[in-house]
Design goal:
Layout (H helix, E strand, L loop, with lengths): L6 H16 L27 H10 L10 H19 L3 H13 L6 E3 L8 E3 L8 H20 L4 E3 L8 E3 L12 H18 L1
Antiparallel strand pairs: 1-2, 3-4
The chain binds zinc ion.
């Protein structure tokens, strides 16, 4: 496995995987019911296609071939649901508390690996280079999100404020806190607010 990405690239991979596993995903094929709890466990029937998740891994630097079973994806889905708690946390201390919960319950201890000399030495929080995919996702994500929180002293990400969207996003760089995962969601919500205002005027 390729695990020598930069912290930022690793965190971006986390967001892509969490969204593909539990959010709208890249294709938006799973519309969320408005008002549903964004951190809630998705219905088991909504566990995505292993090929779609493999494509996300390949797009984020995992060397081919990536072969995932339905069980692998179910375990990754469970990890993604737990990772959403970090993105849903309201503020820095809450995000740190959510990460501490994950670090204390499944991720760690910290170790170094070079994958038998095939990569640069880099830290891991999964138990073994051949650990199951769900354990790998939880460990690699906790590591990247922990370092981002440490480095920026702000929550590493957030949940899209659009009720029609379940995506998480990273908060990189300065500026005011983001509310939406994308310009598309921001525009949709602005149009909806405008329509509501016009109706009540
Ligand atoms: Zn969104």
């Amino acid at each position: 496995m390729e695990h020598s990405l930069s912290v930022r690239a690793s965190a971006e991979r986390t967001v892509a995987l969490v969204n593909a596993l539990t959010g709208q995903g890249d294709t938006g094929t799973r519309p969320a019911s408005p008002g549903s709890d964004p951190a809630s466990v998705p219905h088991p029937a909504s566990v995505p296609d292993p090929d779609a998740i493999a494509r996300v891994l390949l797009a984020h630097g995992e060397p081919a071939p990536v072969e995932l079973t339905v069980d692998d994806v179910a375990e990754m889905n469970a990890a993604a649901v737990r990772l959403r708690e970090v993105f849903a946390a309201p503020g820095l201390a809450a995000a740190a508390t959510a990460l501490n919960r994950l670090l204390g319950g499944g991720a760690g201890p910290l170790r170094l690996s070079s994958h038998g000399g095939r990569t640069a030495w880099h830290p891991h929080l999964d138990s073994d280079d051949e650990a199951p995919w769900g354990e790998w996702l939880l460990g690699a994500s906790c590591l990247a999100l922990t370092v981002l929180l440490w480095d920026h002293q702000r929550p590493p990400g957030g949940l899209c404020a659009s009720p029609a969207c379940r995506n998480v996003f990273l908060t990189l760089g300065g500026g005011p806190p983001r509310r939406y995962c994308s310009r598309r969601c921001a525009t949709r919500e602005r149009v909806a607010a405008h329509r509501r205002a016009a109706r009540t005027a």
